[in-house]
Specification:
Length: 249
């Protein structure tokens, strides 16, 4: 069985005090939740403080990005080793916003993923097509390229989570239908099977990301190949993220 993962990507929101308020409100809502892996991804500047607040709770800590070198003359970057030191167990890699605004490529995703795993982090590797790519009928080509190139050369998938995020559904209020999401997840799992083998395909958790809310999470989670959610805006409020985490109740 693949344990569901509900991960909250806070993006560029929350100062230290605001983050502390959010976490303090979230913990009572999820402290007794079982059977779900809970992850939150704040900005770099609040990781240490949030780590102290989540210690001893079911809530795990993720960063939103990392660099592929451990240290060196790379101004502005943060290494996986430093994220571990700040209390992180996970890191998001290749989010569509990183690809769209900051030049992330399949090659840099691959380098970051390998570096994160080597440092002992679980990598949440994002893939997904734009609206134009979907309308042009090349969605599967895009997903296959991103999965095979982004995960190329990995010897183990134990520390890999894949997040499917249709770019057209991020921050737009649009959500892929349960069936559309399932079709994409099924295809991604098939690509993993064909490229890396049956065992990684069966064990790898694939999350859906794209305007996930308390109102639509249950339908998504009934799909056989959807193993959780990468939540954006709804993770910025304790009650809405808590409701998503507790989708099974």
């Amino acid at each position: 069985m693949r344990t569901p993962v509900i991960a909250g990507n806070w993006k560029l929101f929350k100062t230290a005090d605001e983050a502390a308020t959010l976490v303090s409100g979230l913990i009572p809502l999820v402290k007794d939740t079982t059977g779900v892996e809970i992850v939150i991804a704040p900005v770099f500047t609040v990781l240490d403080r949030v780590s102290k607040l989540t210690a001893g709770t079911p809530v795990k800590l993720s960063a939103q990005d990392c660099f592929w070198e451990e240290e060196g003359a790379f101004t502005g970057e943060i290494s996986p080793k430093m994220l571990r030191d700040a209390g992180c167990s996970h890191v998001i890699i290749g989010h569509s916003e990183r690809r769209q605004y900051f030049g992330e490529t399949d090659e840099t995703v691959n380098k970051k993923t390998k570096a994160a795993i080597a440092a002992g982090l679980t990598a949440i590797v994002c893939v997904g097509e734009t609206l134009k790519e979907r309308e042009d009928g090349i969605m599967n080509d895009v997903l296959k390229r991103q999965v095979t190139k982004g995960l190329e050369g990995l010897s183990s998938f134990q520390a890999i989570i894949v997040a499917y995020e249709p770019v057209w559904a991020i921050g737009t209020g649009k959500t892929a239908s349960d069936e559309q999401a399932q079709d994409a997840h099924k295809y991604i799992r098939q690509v993993i099977k064909e490229t890396f083998g049956s065992a990684p395909a069966e064990s790898t958790r694939i999350l859906y990301g794209g305007s996930v809310k308390p109102e639509n999470v249950k339908g998504l989670m009934t799909q056989p190949d959807i193993d959780g959610a990468l939540v954006g805006g709804a993770s910025l409020k304790a009650d809405s993220f808590g409701a998503i985490v507790n989708f099974g109740k």
